[in-house]
Amino acid sequence: MSSVQIRDVRKSFGNFEVLHGVTIPIEDGQFVVLVGPSGCGKSTLLRMLAGLENITSGTISIGDRVVNNVQPKERDIAMVFQNYALYPHMTVADNMGFSLKLRNASSDEINKRVKRAAEILALSPLLERYPRQLSGGQRQRVAMGRAIVRDPQVFLFDEPLSNLDAKLRVAMRTEIKELHQRLKTTTVYVTHDQIEAMTMADKIVVMHDGIVEQMGTPLELYDKPENQFVAGFIGSPAMNFLKGHVRVNGVATFEGPNGVKLPLKTAPAASDGRPAVYGVRPEHFTIADDGAEAEIIVVEPTGSETQVFAKLGGEQVVAVFRERHQFNPGDKVRLRPDPSVVHLFDEATGKRMNA
Amino acid sequence: MADVVVPRAKPQMSEAYAWNQLKHNRNWLGFWFMLPAMAILIFFLAYPLGLGIWLSFTDTRIGRVGHFVATENYEWLWDDSIFWLSVFNTLLYTFLASAFKFGIGLYLALLLNENMPFKAMLRAMVLIPFIVPTVLSALAFWWIFDSQFSIISWSLKHLGLISQNINFLGDTTWARICVIFANIWRGVPFVAITLLAGLQTVSPSLYEAATLDGASRWQMFRHITYPLLTPIIAVVMTFSVLFTFTDFQLIWAMTRGGPVNATHLMATLSYQRAIIAGQLGEGAAISSAMIPFLLAAIMISWFGLQRRKWQQGESND
């Protein structure tokens, strides 16, 4: 196990820079998730960490060692690929033992370590099978087995669950997290799925267009997104954004689209009249007499909760209610955002304005 | 219980019945669909093969119907040193040419699979020897290896390495080397391009995984590329061996089997005896003698081609 330091790392393909100076400290034993939309550079960063892409500038160190010019096999890392990259002509046992074999480990040693890994991942009955004879979830576990057999300093996961069906994905999510809790190996996990990031990470790094937008614990990102991008990316359904102006005369309020008045707990004193974006999560709406009037468009019950799409000040918003209201399309309701958890962003820069 | 009579509708044989059978009996319909292919195979493959084997048991000559002579032709051949020389030549030719074609083809395929500038153009260029008609390339080689005008002799002389022309096609060893070289030149593109196609089916992520597992370039080839390529190698080498073993055009255009039969293959000897000398029976016997060799080659590749366990798409049990 080791800490990993990524310092001001840049990556260019030709003249095109895809990573613009990324700095991410990763503590020993931490489970860090790099999350962002496709093309944000998260996979490139992971591949640079693995040594599959070279580093244009900046440094990456694993433990105390700068690994910029260290061969992949000497970095002591293991990677799980999106398509698993299992060797089709080798049995599960051979797949898992391949790296040890290349290191000239004795066959006893290989057997012992493969068996141990197989036990951890419940692969013992499948050791003599070929990848073709396995289901998606089993292949996924073999890919992880191949990683843990080596007992590396760092695990790297490159969107490992995106080829699985929804149900299996949830199960494997738990399995990977459990594995990490058991082995406590430093892990860097890349995904585009914010739910995976939220559920698994000790620390989430949100990336966008080659920069780090924000990093922190899942709940920090959920509660205090530093900018509008992170606010919109984390949480499902996504946060509602309403454009308007801040009013600070006596009591702080937000004047939304078509003059809708929305409550604010506090606002910076100097922000009076500033164009801003009001952010409220769907789950932070309540039905209240002093709420803003909205017209219901669509009601989507999921059983545990109900998603309601409504027009508020002419803009479409989505609200989620745990309790069961009797709503019909066309109904007028009064929606009140909880002012203690609303977010305010500068319209021009997207930066968070309220505390 | 034999006296229990089951009332049965009488089968009504009619046109409608036959049509219905055609519509509903898939085997019957399938037979009709297979018929054209069967006819082609019977008339153009099975019949000539059968006729050839039959001729080898007769003393047929051109212009004279032969009589059955049992194995007399084969007995003659058994004592014919030229026939045995042609068998030796054919085996040597096939073995050396195939081995080189495999080696060079694999090397070229690996090279062309790398990222490099003008990749598409280089790949197209590799195919050139394959596109040129065999007889034309054989004629070109004939000039290249000519005893007086050979460009190789000319160049070596100007470099001061030799003082006299090399008699490429006049010397038995040189002649063998030359025809084998020409065959390799012609056969490499087929092997290279087919193996390249095979290489491209290997997922790049396997190499990345192997890199992280600590494999060197050689280990990647040994443990990933080669095993994944074996099914294609088996197919391509089977074809290559069959084509080389039965080669005729190149030899006939370059040497006609000479000098002193040093480059006579079974195919060229058969042609010479059957068509040039008119001994159809004997020529057919030489051709038929190729069958055991070809069958052996096919058997070897058949076992080599058997699907490996990892290729079988077994479902879970």
UniProtKB/TrEMBL annotation, chain A:
PROSITE patterns: ABC_TRANSPORTER_1, ABC_TRANSPORTER_2
Compartments it resides in: Cell inner membrane
Membrane protein topology class: Peripheral membrane protein
An example Gene Ontology molecular-function term: ABC-type transporter activity
UniProtKB keywords: ATP-binding, Nucleotide-binding, Transport
Its biological purpose: Involved in beta-(1-->2)glucan export. Transmembrane domains (TMD) form a pore in the inner membrane and the ATP-binding domain (NBD) is responsible for energy generation.
Listed NCBIfam families: PRK11650.1
PANTHER family, A to Z: BLL2173 PROTEIN, MALTODEXTRIN IMPORT ATP-BINDING PROTEIN MSMX
Family: Belongs to the ABC transporter superfamily.
Protein name: sn-glycerol-3-phosphate ABC transporter ATP-binding protein UgpC
Designated gene of the protein: ugpC
From TrEMBL, chain B:
Main location per the UniProt record: membrane
Compartments reported by the entry: Cell membrane
InterPro entries on file: ABC_transporter_permease, MetI-like, MetI-like_sf
Keyword set includes Transmembrane helix: yes
Membrane-spanning parts: 29-55, 82-112, 124-145, 174-197, 226-245, 284-305
Keyword Transport listed: yes
Membrane topology, record value: Multi-pass membrane protein
GO biological process, one term: transmembrane transport
Residue ranges annotated for the ABC transmembrane type-1 domain, each copy included: 87-303
Record's keyword terms, sorted: Cell membrane, Membrane, Transmembrane, Transmembrane helix, Transport
GO CC field: plasma membrane
Family designation: Belongs to the binding-protein-dependent transport system permease family.
Name of the protein this chain belongs to: ABC transporter permease subunit
Lineage: Bacteria, Pseudomonadati, Pseudomonadota, Alphaproteobacteria, Hyphomicrobiales
